[in-house]
Design brief:
The structure is a single chain. The protein has three helices and 60 strands. It is mostly beta strands. It folds into six domains: 77 residues, no CATH class; 226 residues, Jelly Rolls (Sandwich); 80 residues, Immunoglobulin-like (Sandwich), CATH 2.60.40; 122 residues, Lipocalin; 125 residues, Lipocalin; 31 residues, no CATH class. A hairpin with a 2-residue loop joins strand 28 and strand 29. It is elongated.
């Protein structure tokens, strides 16, 4: 069926906001007794919407969860508040009604029933005269309010269990173990209790377990009964909404699941929490109702033989438990390393052209799952998966974040040396990917020497030492060979590698020794990738850094920026230990920043993604990168001024961060620029027109007639 949610307002954090109409197609509707039960998942607008609803007596109870980009966003509820969707009415035992039989009364929790409201007539009607349920203030640890105390009694001198049920008790035999004495759920019936509630419990969800707090004390039982029948009983049966009784009088085919504990011990007469998992049948049925029964003894007819010393079973806060975690998580069929149900953030390394297919299972019989892949548009192949598992009753949710990181590919000349003889250099590629914890994986793609293709040589767990923007790697270990030719199989798909490498200014240099042994012969293979960086020119600037967050300036703090000169007019900026609002981001590195020298200044400007290293948790949440725009920057005489913007986006919130480093000179730093749509003419002191500024004194005339003398 179609459900439309109109005029809803949701609260996100401290902000309330209206939501456009949400149209949910395909919501499942089922009928049990007087209740219409609704359950569904749909995509509406920008949201994945999970919906539960219940309609009875012209009133609706409903709630919905909104998930955005695969992550929990907000919850909305509306309608009648008496019912808790996915739970049993009155299972907190705080609301009560009065049952009555021939002038006698008994307090019974709403939604629950004992002998005073039982179905019994004739010689068995006396079972209804005794009070079996009481309001108690002796609640479980950490709770306030009330609980229910269930006691045994004697009927015509015969001991009788104290029992409470969501259905209706039937007394139909003098023999306690006869199935005519039972608790029955029959949604087809129209009988109601004194509070106008039916003798059945509607439910359309699939719980994983049932949990309840109990305190149990046996009364004056015979020695044999105390030894042989020392336990109280809990039974929960989920059905398709047709008639069912407990204990069964026949084989029932309408059962979806059972959870039973017939061994609840006294345990020193202290509170204990009992949890029982549901065992599901193979029946392909829709859940519609549940019959829950608790008794002072698991054996019918076994009870205290003294009315003034009864068996006592205190019951508090019974809940149906719905799991909401993942039990497995895979990328491209491979289990995510280090996966655990209670760990919610991961970094996975994958190749750029991999499918990056996400697979998962949950630990729930039924749960709502929203998943979304958020991929950047920078062509890196990286992506972030959000997977949110929401319990079937919409009460709990857990979001798993998987950062899929693709390697940085370096392409340069590879020089192979065989037994001391250099081969002709060839272009090659090496992928380098962070494993976290300062370890990296190197993959030498399609490695070959001579005419012999070896394959992809992968060296994992390569330790890295980083200092002053330079990464140094040293390792000796076996590397694996994949995608190899015949020679790789002869080598056992592995080769021993000794490697020394460094990455600086966006360039990789590596020296490797890979001795190849075939039969009794060993070929000493050495490989040199790229060119070693020498004479790096680095200037370290220390000055005040002023951060503005969404236009609001923060107090200035001292900061450090390294500016490293590359080749061909390019520079690397490293903003050391960058932080804002008390949050450490890490070292922000911007490579290949164009620099133009003019009038003794170097002017810098760029807009690109920067890499974050040595970062805190927020850096991982950002995928270890941030988009940076150097709006204005220049350096001269050991001073640097830089104005940068770094918008920071976490989940669906973006904070506009502006950073200003150093002091801007008062004037004269923009060099010589042409007026818009005009021309600039340069002359020497003799009046001869020049093509540009020459060494010495220059006379510059702008299009608006102004004359400036410039000494270069």
């Amino acid at each position: 069926m179609k459900v439309t949610i109109s005029g809803a307002t949701i609260k996100v954090g401290t902000t309330s906001a209206p939501v456009s109409d949400l149209v949910l197609d395909g919501v499942k509707s089922s009928k049990v007794g007087k209740f219409q039960l609704l359950n569904g998942k749909a995509h509406a607008g920008d949201y994945d919407v999970f919906f539960l609803g219940q309609v009875a007596d012209g009133k609706i109870t409903a709630k919905f969860n909104l998930n955005l980009d695969g992550a929990y966003y907000a919850q909305g509820t509306f309608g009648e508040t008496r019912y808790t969707l996915g739970q049993l009415l009155g299972s907190d035992f705080e609301s009560w009604h009065t049952a009555e039989y021939k002038g006698k009364t008994s307090d019974e929790p709403d939604g629950w029933h004992s002998f005073m409201s039982a179905n019994a007539s004739g010689m068995y009607a006396s079972a209804r005269k005794n009070t079996h349920t009481f309001i108690s203030k002796d609640v479980r640890p950490g709770a306030k309010g009330q609980c229910v105390k269930v006691v045994s009694s004697t009927v015509i001198g015969v001991p009788a269990n104290g029992t409470i049920t969501t259905g209706r008790l039937y007394a139909g035999s003098a023999k306690p173990a006869n199935p005519a004495n039972n608790a029955t759920s029959n949604p087809a019936g129209t009988d109601v209790d004194s509070n106008n509630d039916p003798f059945y419990a509607p439910i359309n969800t699939l719980p994983d377990s049932i949990a309840v707090w109990v305190k149990y004390k046996q009364g004056a039982l015979s020695a044999d009964n105390k030894q042989n029948y020392p336990y109280a009983n809990l039974s929960a049966v989920l059905t398709d909404g047709t008639k069912y009784q407990d204990p069964e009088d026949k084989t029932y085919t309408n059962v979806l699941a059972k959870a039973q504990n017939k061994k609840i011990e006294e345990n020193g007469n202290v509170w204990q929490r009992i949890s029982v998992p549901f065992t599901y049948t193979d029946a392909k049925l829709d859940p519609k109702s549940m019959l829950v029964t608790l008794s002072t003894n698991a054996q019918p007819g076994v009870a205290s033989n003294k009315a003034d010393v009864p068996d006592e079973l205190y019951i508090d806060d019974l809940v149906l438990v719905y799991n909401s975690q993942l039990s497995s998580l895979k990328i491209d069929g491979v289990e995510v390393p280090g996966f655990a149900s209670d760990k919610y953030s991961y970094t996975v390394y994958s190749s750029k052209d991999a499918d990056k297919k996400l697979e998962y299972t949950t630990n729930a019989k039924s749960a709502f799952v929203a998943s979304e892949a958020v991929a950047p548009t920078d062509g890196s192949g990286n992506c972030v998966y959000n997977v949110t598992v929401t319990s079937a009753d919409l009460q709990t949710s857990h979001t798993y974040v998987v950062n899929v990181v693709c390697p940085t590919t370096y392409t340069d000349q590879l020089l192979i040396n065989l037994e001391g003889e250099d081969m002709e250099p060839e272009q090659a590629s090496i992928d380098v990917c962070s494993e976290g914890n300062n370890n990296y994986t190197f993959v030498l793609k399609k490695f070959s020497f001579g005419d012999n293709l070896i394959g992809d040589v992968t060296i994992s767990g390569v330790p890295c030492v980083e200092k002053d923007g330079k990464q140094t790697f040293t390792v000796e270990k076996d590397a694996t060979i994949t995608n190899g030719a015949d020679i790789a199989e002869m080598l056992g798909n592995k080769v021993h590698v000794t490697m020394n490498a460094e990455i600086e200014n966006g360039k990789l240099y590596a020296e490797m020794a890979l001795p190849v042994t075939l039969g009794d012969a060993t070929i000493n293979v050495k490989a040199t990738f790229g060119k070693k960086t020498t004479n790096v020119e680095k200037t370290t600037y220390k000055d005040q850094l002023v951060i503005s967050l969404d236009g609001e300036k923060q107090d200035p703090e001292e900061a450090t920026i390294d500016v490293i000169k590359q080749s061909e007019g390019k520079y690397t900026f490293v903003l050391k230990k960058f932080s804002f609002a008390g949050l450490l981001i890490g070292d922000v590195t911007i490579t290949d920043v164009p620099g133009v020298e003019k009038n003794g200044y170097v002017f810098y400007t760029v807009e690109k993604d920067a890499v974050i290293t040595n970062g805190a948790e927020i850096a991982e949440a950002l995928g270890n990168k941030v988009h940076v725009k150097i709006v204005e920057a220049y350096s001269k005489d050991g001073k640097l001024y830089a104005k940068m913007t770094l918008p920071v986006t976490i989940e669906d919130a973006t904070m506009n961060v502006e950073a200003v480093f150093g002091e801007k000179p008062a004037a004269g730093i923009n060099g010589i620029t042409a007026t818009q749509n005009g021309k600039v003419e340069v002359y020497n002191v003799n009046g001869v027109r020049l093509n540009g500024l020459q060494k010495g004194l220059n006379i510059v005339r702008t299009a608006d007639g102004k004359v400036v003398k410039v000494l270069k």
